[in-house]
TrEMBL record:
It comes from the Bacteria. This is Uncharacterized protein. It comes from Marseilla massiliensis.
């Protein structure tokens, strides 16, 4: 990793011993950031790490201060650092791989030991579910089977943990089967609205199991379970889109918009918590998506989605960094 403060006087790593020292250290960091014209992703990560560390130390020192003046200076310098950080991010073009590097380097969400065990258990569950053979049949037949799965679950109801886990296992098979027919289904000739609506109803039923008088799931348990389900589906969907698009010679306007949305959805939807739930295999999938996405976007220039896809990595980096400050 590049040295953060090369050619600049480094900010002291010692915790500030007084309010005056704290504000001086914070202002020194602002001066260093302001002096930079551009930086690479390694330098950006190091700079933000230094910013966060110093911000924490300064805040701790200022907790003992009761004067509005010191607090106002602290806020003012912090706002100035944000502005300069935003300028630096906007000063160059970033890639989706750069964004993933930022996530790896700066995601500070940590799980307690109980949550870590649950996350590992859910990964094992989905790894096992992923070994089941997909549903057979045409696109229309697969959608029919998917609908019947949802209808059956809604008719029976989701009342126990076993009901929820059994549904998620069968849903995983149905969803993977759906993705095998993506090129056909993306034309819009086979309605999918019922699947979307019914899936939402089943998810509501699973969530309600954590809100009953005698809950089947703990609230954090159901949040982690469904967030990991969402991670898996978004990655599978985007990967299938990219592979399907590679095989297609032409896509019409409607298909292009559908593909673009599905390819970009992981980048738009996944936050720090979602990334904290991923295992290395999923992060490697994200890296694969990062490599394949730019070429796919070139092929989807005719889409109607009003989004600056080329500028999205910079926006993602800015949101990830400044959203935490």
């Amino acid at each position: 990793m590049a040295t953060l403060l090369a050619s600049c006087q480094p900010v002291s790593n010692d915790s500030p011993s007084s309010i005056g020292d704290a504000l001086v250290s914070y202002n020194e960091l602002f001066t260093i950031i302001k002096s930079k014209k551009a930086l690479n992703v390694e330098e950006l990560i190091s700079l933000v790490q230094e910013w966060r560390k110093l911000k924490t130390a300064v805040s701790a020192t200022l907790e003992s201060d009761t004067t509005a003046h010191a607090d106002a200076r602290h806020i003012s310098i912090g706002d100035s650092i944000k502005f300069q950080m935003s300028r630096l991010i906007d000063s160059r073009t970033w890639s989706y791989s750069d964004y993933l590097a930022v996530v790896r380097g700066l995601n500070d969400i940590e799980m307690d030991s109980v949550s870590q065990k649950l996350v590992a258990s859910v990964h094992l569950f989905y790894h096992d579910a992923g070994t089941a053979a997909p549903l057979k049949g045409s696109a229309k037949e697969v959608i029919g089977k998917y609908n019947r799965l949802l209808d059956g679950s809604l008719a029976k109801g989701i009342r126990t943990k076993h009901d929820a886990i059994d549904f998620l296992r069968n849903e995983d098979v149905a969803f993977r089967s759906f993705l095998l027919h993506l090129s056909t289904l993306s034309t819009g000739n086979i309605p999918l609205d019922d699947i979307t609506k019914k899936t939402g109803e089943v998810m509501h039923g699973i969530i309600s199991l954590s809100a009953d008088e005698y809950p089947v799931f703990g609230k954090s348990e159901v949040v982690i379970l469904l967030a990991m389900r969402n991670n898996r589906r978004l990655l599978q969907n985007a990967e299938a889109c990219l592979e399907s698009l590679h095989r297609l010679h032409r896509v019409d306007n409607g298909q292009a918009t559908a593909y673009l949305w599905m390819i970009l959805q992981p980048w738009i939807s996944l936050d720090g918590f979602a990334y904290a739930l991923m295992d290395e295999e999923q992060m490697r999938t994200m890296e694969k998506l990062a490599e394949m996405t730019p070429k796919a976007l070139d092929k989807l220039e005719e889409s109607d989605l009003p989004l600056d896809a080329d500028g999205l990595p910079a926006l993602l980096i800015k949101t990830f960094i400044l959203g935490y400050e």
